[in-house]
Every structure is written in C-alpha cells, then in structure tokens.
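1st attempt posting a full record on here, be nice pls
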Amino acid sequence: MFDWLDTLIAWLVYDTIGLDATTHWGQALHFFFYDSIKILILLFVITFIMGIVNAYFPIDRIRNFLSRNKLFGGEYLLASAFGAITPFCSCSSVPLFIGFVKGGIPMGVTFAFLITSPLVNEVAIAIFIGMFGLKTTLIYATSGILLGTIGGYVLGKLKLEHLLTPWVQGVIQQAEVEGSYEEEKRTFAQRLPGITQEALGIVKSVLLYVLIGIGIGALMHGFIPTGFFEEHISKENPLAVPLAVILGIPMYANAAGVLPVVQVLVQKGVPLGTAIAFMMAVIGLSLPEATLLKKVMTWKLIAIFFGTVTFFIILSGYLFNIIL
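the predicted structure (as tokens):
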C-alpha cells in the first residue's frame, strides 16, 4: 500500500540528503520519515471514519442505552466495544467513567469500558495497521475488546460498589439518570465539516506523541543491535511477559507514543505478544490514571482493578506469542 512512500523516502534520505543506507543514521532517518508520514495518513483516515460513527452514536445515547438495557451479559461486550471506538487515553477515560457510574450503569459494565477505552481506539488501530498489518490488528483489537469484556464481568461479579469513595456514592444517590436525548436534525453534509475538523484536531493533538515515539523507535532501529533484546526478553524466557508488563506500568504514554517503540522491539527480536503486553501496560495501567481514579475509588479498589487487568494483560501476552 505504501510502496510509493518507501520509494519517496529512500530518494529523500539516500539520494537527496546523501546518507548511506547501511549506516545507523541512514536507517534511523529513513525509519523516522517513512513511519511518521504513513502513520499520520492512516491516523487521519481512520479517525475520520470513526468520527462519522461517533456523530450518529454519541456518548449520551449509548450511556442511556446501557443504563436501560440488560442484555444477559451482552452489556459488558457492548460497553467494551464502545470503549474501543472512543478516542480516549486512560486518563481522559476517567471523567466518562464517573459519568457512567452517576448514570446508574453497573460497576462491571463501567469497568469494561474503562479497560478497553485506552487499549483499543482509532489511533491504536491506525498505527497498528501501518506497522503490523491487518491480520495482527484484527487479533489485537478483538483481544482488547474481549479483555475489557471478561475483566468487566469478573470485576462486576466481585460486588465492589462499597469500595467506591464516599464522594461518588453520594453523587450516585443524588443523581438522576438522564433519559432524554435530543436528536440533531442535521444532514451528513452539514456534519462533515465538524467531523473533518475533529479528525484533524485528534491528529494534531497526538502529533507530538507520534513524532517522539517514532523518533525513539528510529534511534532504537538504527543504533541498538538486534541481539540485545533477544538476549533479555526472548520467547525462551518464561518470565518475559510479566516482566514487560511490570516495567510498563510506571510509564505513561498513549498509543501514538508507545506503538513506534513496540514496532522496533519486535524488529529487534522481542516476541510480538511480549511487546503488545508491554504496550497495554503502558497505556492501560498508568500511574496518572491511578491518581485520577482515587477521586472515585478507594486504594483497595484501585489495587483490585489494576491487579485484575494486569493478570489478563499477561495472559493475553502469552496467548499472542502462541497465536502470532
């Protein structure tokens, strides 16, 4: 799909700038320019498509639907799928989590959304397609939604409502579920400028993260020997996946920032499942998210939430290594 871009960047880096393709800087610069342009193109296209989806299925409508309908367990899957189509990082998902709880949506269903939202979204999917192809992207997206569904179901069965903070419990008691939604009487042509502007806004908001992440990935691609990661986090090491997850938790980045690093880890010999588990820990289990959640959860509930998600991420990492 992007052969034309590879040819263009090769001409720019090797012919115009004059760098040798066999040198560290030549390889790093080619990687940086090629991946930056490719990812930004995919990011805009997929964000634009998801903007159309979100325009016709806004947050309030889905929140009200979830609060009114019990789908024999399917509400967990629905909430997780909704999390996958919303462009939120772990921290920006927290205010919506509070809104779900205030709206009377069960805790487990709300957790299903909170787990999936930072892991799978149009940003992650756009970058994943460009880096690993459609098949791997579909497996990743499906597993992320199932992770949220199963994790939310398990947390829901634990009956953890009493571990919410007194503040949010008071809010729930006073809040009334909003049952009305005013349909916007606008045609697609009228919505299109706003959708385009929103897509450009999302690309602009993550541009710095994309460039920083790709820049780090480019330096790793050009300068770190291939055998370095094979020696320390190889498929032969049975503890590589949990080690990668533990190392990822203290870090904080969104998908745009961490995925270019994941790509280089894979190129350097780290198994794809291990690299994806690291990525999920970075974007789904961040310390800033824990700080924000303290407003609505006790530390015990935060520990249970993080522990449950960590377990499923590690399990997913092992399964990825078997499947991919």
